[in-house]
Amino acid sequence: MDSVSHNQSQRLKWRTHVVFATLLMIWGAIAFRLVYLQCYQRSELIQKSSDQASFLEPIPPRPGDIVDRNGRLLATSVVTKSLYLVPRKISDTWQTSNKLAEVLNVSAESLFERISRHREKGFLWIKRRLDDDTSEQIEQ
User: Fold this and answer.
1) What is this structure's pTM?
2) For the chain, first and last CA: distance in Å?
């Protein structure tokens, strides 16, 4: 009986050593990876995080007004809205074409054909420089 308990004790020690060695290898691999990232890939990772955190977007300046010598306004910039679609996200092209054709006073068939022709695109201009009434109708 004493030899049986001794064998069990030996097995338990062996299992404990295996578990400990496995955990030590895992922690060693993690430590190695952290040192590698900090020492050898530091500049690349700093650049990536900087690129993800900020970006430059140029904002074009608004052209100035044109006035005569008395200060009366002759010409100015006018802000208008434009209409575009994402053709690949439209599920019912015919219904969309019909609704937009009513508001824009264009042929539904030609609008349907144009959207269908550019079905795979992610962006398609429909009409630029919309007046306020047309813009409101489209938004509704």
Assistant:
1) 0.45
2) 88
